[in-house]
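On clarity, I found the account of how folds are encoded harder to follow than it need be. What matters is that the chain and its backbone geometry are given together, residue for residue. The format is easy to grasp once an entry is in front of the reader. For illustration, here is how one protein appears when written out as sequence plus structure tokens.
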Amino acid sequence: MTSRTDVAAMIDHTLLKPESTPADVAALVAEAQALGVKAICVSPSALPVADTGDLVVATVCGFPSGGHHSEIKAAEAARAVADGADEVDMVINLGAAKAGDFDAVESDIRAVVAAAGSALVKVIIESAALTDEEIVEACRRAERAGAGFVKTSTGFHPSGGASAQAVRLMRATVGGRLGVKASGGIRTAQAAEEMIRAGASRLGLSGSRVVLDGLA
């Protein structure tokens, strides 16, 4: 069993519900600090976030569809970094990926990476909506475009969230060169441990306390 402390250090404690209020964000920060997690992840309009202390602050970009123009995603990323984001989790153009236009996918990622400057970019590939071959190519293009992480899911797509199979495939593709974030539908300690065994180096969780309490 992975220790509670080790798992906490991998968690992006996430609040992306559209109806989230400033009070909800403040409660998220307080809970994140109490749990000892690595980061919080909030919507761009919630930035800047006060009193985060040592927490890493992540946000999303082109979320949740990924169907935005690249220049809009780039502007969103630049604004988020200016507002205090340390990390930007962007959604790929899923339609381009499904059409086999991975040059467009790579160009889209590259635009966000450039706009984010020194901030870490995590690329959400929506793995449950892709074939194995598409997952591999999306990961390759994310690496070529300069991203720091590949990430399974938004948690909003009807095809589902993270799977251990997708995480294993993503880790096999990027090796130790990029991080792999498993996100979407991870609600138990058992599920979190399965993702870590598959190769995840970061976990996106909204129910972090439940997961960590399962490791206590």
